[in-house]
# Entry
Amino acid sequence: MTQLRTLRLVESALCRLNGRDVEPPPIPLDRRDFLAAGAGLLVTSLLAACDASGPKGSDELLKYAEGRNEVVERWLLRHTSMNRARDGWKAAGSRFPAYFVSKTIPKWNPATNGEWALEVNGLVDKPLRLTLADLVALPRRRQRVSHFCVEGWTAVAEFAGVPLAHLASMVRPHADARYVDFQSFDDNYHESWDMESATHPQTLIVYGKDGMMLPPPYGAPARLHSPVKLGYKNVKYLTRISFMAERNGGYWSDQGYEWYGGT
Amino acid sequence: MRTRPRHHWIVRVTHWVNAVALVVMIGSGLRIFNAYPAFARKGESFCCWPWEGQPIPGWATFGGWLAGARHWHFAAMWVLVVNGLIYLAFIYLHGEWRDLSPRRGDLRDVREMLRFYFFLSREHPRQGKHNTLQRGTYFVMPWIGALIVLTGIAIWKPVSLGWLTALFGGYVWARYWHFVAMLVLIALSAIHIFMVFAVDPYSLRSMTTGGYSERLSPEARNARPFYHLLPKWGRRAPPIDGARNSATSKEPT
# Structure
């Protein structure tokens, strides 16, 4: 066998010297094949060695990619791109998932907390404190839109509320206010947004859903809703809106979900 | 003189980068799917998926949890897209697309190839670099890839790029086509990998180092799945009668 092998190697060298375009019969599993098979095995074992969340040390790479993606996403965001649910799409109604982080549905108790009011403050010229009646009296926008959950489902609802851009024009944020934080009374749930998404015309402080006042499972008395952000960015049970120079994370963003969470 | 590699090094590199990126994309995509393993809009039912609510087994997923899988998916997508564009630009500029594009008589050749594989004909049909089934597969795969990328962008940015999402029938349908196209790609890849090992394991070498001997081609070996895996040692030169002409000559006979 070794003789045969040597013969073939010689023959192969001769073929090359002669410049012939014909190769001799191959030797099963030559050096290159061996290397190739070895490389394949290495890749497989590497993949098997890392746990289901990926190789260690990949976190920084993923963080970097998230940052680059955010640049792309902010560049793609236009105040002119609007979401509208088609007429044929049924409103989810009571099938709209209710979600909160407290153990039970958070309810504002006026007996202990006083009358509910929404604070609008931070880096602004004219901080505001708005009761529900104040909010309802402000210019209203109704929109039948899709709600995009990070999990992959969507739900259609008609939301009514005040565009945040209008509130911003009332409080007049400073030039260095590039972020907005939304605080809730649902166990300290909050999320911060970029200014561009917050002032999108479809970003509303919502107090009405499907033609009725917002019910407690969906964030009463008032919630944030915009189709331009994923569900977890749309804070319910609002208490305070703060304009800020820096972002301050959020409930799910701090646990590893994308901070930007845009659609 | 060394023979020209069967595949240009750019094709070889992009092939393997694509393989790794696809595994990451599919695994993380399935993990994302499991967060809502259904297609229906809330409050509606969905016509076209019999397994609504049925999650993918955990072992087939990658990323650990929803946020982790999303990070992997949105990072690896750039690898997949950039790598794919390099490959497509290369085969366009370098001419390899001619080995892959459909030809007149392909349907007949598909029948001939299937007849051979199912033992209804004795001789391997004549072919160029690839047989007709391969050419069809390698031609269709980039188109399915393009569909996957476009539907993926449509469900990534359903508002910013709402026109694209609308083009696929809205978010629910775009997500559905994203998933179905992925299933088709998995099926084609599975057949591809099976055929590599069952018919032409020598192509592993041609896709890594580039080396290949036409004597080892499936046509020269008259190879069906698991038949004639080894070349005939006695055969020194390809027959010259043209009955089983070697793939070294691509001219029509």
Notes: Confidence is low (pLDDT under 50) at residues 9-27 of chain A. Chain A has two domains: 2-49, 59-255.
